[in-house]
Protein 1
Amino acid sequence: MSIFDLAKVPLRELNAALHSLPPSTNETHWVVTNPGGKHAIACGVDAPITIDIEGHVGYYCGGMNKEATIVVSGNAGVGVAENMMSGEVRVKGDASQAAGATGRGGLLVIDGNASARCGISMKGIDIVVKGSIGPMSAFMAQAGNLVVLGDAGDALGDSIYEARLFVRGSVAGLGADCIEKEMSAEDKSILKSLLKRADLNESISPDDFKMFGSARRLYHFHIDNVDAY
Amino acid sequence: MTVPPPHRTPPRFSATFSPQTIAEIQRAAATGIYDIRGGGAKRALPHFDDLLFLGASISRYPLEGYREKCGTDVALGTRFAKKPIKLKIPVTIAGMSFGALSAPAKEALGRGASAVGTSTTTGDGGMTAEERSHSSILVYQYLPSRYGMNPDDLRRADAIEIVIGQGAKPGGGGMLLGQKISPRVAKMRTLPEGIDQRSACRHPDWTGPDDLEIKIEELRELTDWEKPIYVKVGASRPYYDTALAAKSGADVIVLDGMQGGTAATQEVFIENVGLPLLAAIRPAVQALQDLGLHRKLQLIVSGGVRTGADVAKALALGADAVAIGTAALIALGDNDPQLQAEYEKLGTVAGAYDDWQDGLDPAGITTQDPVLAARLDPVKAGRRLANYLSVLTLEAQTIARACGKSHLHNLEPEDLVALSIEAAAMAGVPLAGTNWIPGITQ
């Protein structure tokens, strides 16, 4: 196990060490102490390792992650796991804005709440938020799944493409071209699988959720949709 | 009483309701949608044509035109990057996407630029393997849409350009109409095939200069501080945008005037938002000078650069390099008079074709139609571009030597005068034949 104390060692040294790991590395468990809200902790990792971060992190923790499992035992700043490609990022506390933004793969689990723009422009990532999410979440979401056990803020899924949004609580309002949709058996299966991967009690049923997605009315320019442009 | 024909006044067109304006009103009424086209501002604007070099005489020594050295190289990213880019010529190829352009066009740009030692730039939609392999120096654009963005391509790039905006549409997002969302383009951008793509105009995970600084830090950490980080802005508030980009930690600032082209944008946006390049360079340079950073971080300017004289004038006003887009496409074969009959079928003429959004380009450049794209020979087109880039450089050197400069970067505002009061004010150089710089001297 490798331990980096960011109160003593520069962030650059940590990220350089993580980036130098070959895919077959035996150094599979890393612990980061005293993160102190620093930005870009463990961004750009490309190896199947586990990184435990003991404390709060700043912006872009786990950004563009590939393969790694990153656990933040604290709160996360803006853009946690932004553009994640694969692997997992788990936040034990709350997450700030743009959690999982533009993510293309992997799983982001937030035990607490996530602020505005959660899953903005998501492109294939799966996100599970055990609390609530702020406004403008899943804006222009292209692909992937966003699961929210709590409530969703206003303008959910504005200009959404083909992502699925599952919300158990209330939705303050839907954005342009986002509508409630009936869940198919496949949708329920995806949701059930995500709940399980997020270590949620199996007593939570997919039937407790509503699903939202694209009405596909804005896919082509048309003057009759002018109010939405 | 009817006036007989010889005494009638000839038809008089309104300056306000010109034939072009009337046609646009009629088009809008018929279609109910704004006009979308490619290219940059077409209206007459104060430009480099309004400036002249003074040349050398008794008070200034010229250099021998073909013998004495006149350097053209430029290093980009010397501020923070471990691996700055070194270009042989100060003319780069601006960001243009695969999607907006065909694969052969992207290949040709790479071939032409690489042949003369300069860089090309990706665009919205990500990096293709072809453009990476054909561009010896490739700048990877990091755009609000983040289509096709992945860390492997970031690491494969030679530099990263964070795009805040572009001159054709400062404040506007990208647009690619359904005709060009082919299966490959759709897959790269994670979009359904054939939809009208409307890209975001703001980055999804940062807002404002303080956040931008942190975003730049993330990109540097991701790439181990090797790559130069560019920040591209459309010319709108060039003094403040330049100062804020510099404060945020950019290595290179790219400033794009409203003559800079776009693949597809609303005509009303292209013609009515932003500044002409001539008005933007001096405020940007002033910001760098005020911060003590002129020539320490580099300024690339673009938007209507056509000739070596334009290159020389941009550098004399304080830029370190220029970028070309529209001119590069013309060099590849865009708007070729030999295609006149085909342009006429599209309702236009060679020299005016700008419906790049439709994907019907007979030159095979702004299209995703495989039959049309196959018309462009990337080797021959690349050679044409290399020729053109060489001519731009030779022309700029010719002027620089005449001004007594042993490097293009030694050109300075003192070498210039303006032909109009507007150009003198914008460029901060005297009106020709006077000592008057409007706004600066009495």
Protein 2
Amino acid sequence: MKNYGVFDILGPVMIGPSSSHTAGAARLAKMASTISGEGIEKVEFILHGSFAKTYKGHGTDRALVGGILGMDPWDIRIRNSFSHAQDQKLEYSFIEGDLGDVHPNTIKFRIFKESGRIVEISGSSIGGGSIRIYEVDGQPVELNGEYPTLIISYKDQPGMLSKISTVLYQSEINIAFLKVFRNIRGEKAVMVCETDSGCGRSIRQRIRDLGDIYSVKEIRPLKEGEENVC
Amino acid sequence: MFVNTGKELIEACSKENISISEYTIRTQIDTEGSNREVVINKMRNNLKVMKDSAEYALKNSVKSVSGLIGGQAKTLYDYSLNEKTLTGEFMVRAMARALSCSEVNAAMGRIVAAPTAGSCGILPAVIISAAEKLEKNDEEMINALFTASGVGIIIAKNATLSGAEGGCQAECGSAAAMAAAAVIEMMGGTPEMALHGAAIVIKNILGLVCDPVAGLVEIPCAKRNLAGAVNALSTVDLVMSGVTSFIPFDDVVSAMYKVGKSLPCELRETALGGIATTETGILLKNKVL
């Protein structure tokens, strides 16, 4: 039997109308934006299934653009996210597509960066505002944003896991879940580390200082910050 | 960990001689590893958002994103101010509040999913209206929200709160059951009475399908929030008079789950049946999509 907390039942605080099509969409986009990093010029939103059929009426489109701009699912600016995008010179387009045998509410983000780099991120809104990012640049991952999540990309070599976890241990940060992924031995590996408490800037910098670290990103959980919405 | 059934919930409360809200608060503190103040303040924030969304569309004529609904909450509220109503100012005000939340939601305003966005009007309408009438303060309303979530946890564990899985009975039905239990406790009813209320509410709408026009959370969702609030409030009086549910809460929840599972997928949020595929439903869909 699955366990539920009080705020799984009452919550999230969100911009309507649909937890899966609006709140979940904003959250997916915010996560995609965080993963790809600053300097986003243009985004193609490739919508699958129910997302593709009902995105206008559910405000999925505005939620997605808001999320890319860093808005949280409870941010009232989501309603006018298109004009915010114009102000910030963000280009976007919505494309109805078929992403295969996936959840009905699935999206692929194709993110074009100032640097010329293109980042592709796929994820699903799995109900109640919960999400799952399952692919980043062709690499399978598993991210749900329930916990503060560190995404660390580094050179695949012995000892990296031990060095990073030592920094976390010294900072008294408890690792709740940990996964590592890589495509080719000795090249780029990605560690997804969900923790009980967030890290913050200085700890992220200590990890960067370890050497052979390509990037360190942190994603805050959806529910965090809700006590500050009013 | 939170108990698994209504029966266990009543036992746990009676063992400690506490209410459902107190049991729920204590369990949440343990689960989070936080303290009472943190947990209460999170709920205080929920209450604030609920109050705003229950109030806004009474005074402002809002329009949903699709343009299908909006303005009905204000119409009803104005009627309660200007006309002699049949069911009384209290009931009509509660109905208008439920509509208000649903309209705010459909217009991309801020709401609390309670337990879902589609059913976000019932709990605020019932709790706020009851508290107003019974002269209860914010702390007592916050307690009521904990009672409601305690009952919701049991339903989520044994059935579902999702329209896609169990139809509207699982969304609006659960919301109304949670709301009735909360007000019964607010009025001094026992945990057992609260669950009698929750059981009766669900029985009253068992089998209700989820058939949104154009797949949007608008028609018939907003009015079903209103109906859910009325169902909850009338059941509170029934239970406070001493009437009980012949079928216990746990049995009713299990029946609701089975009924939900046996609904064809056309009637579970896919917009492929019911109101959604009526002649007018299809016309409206073609207009907005």
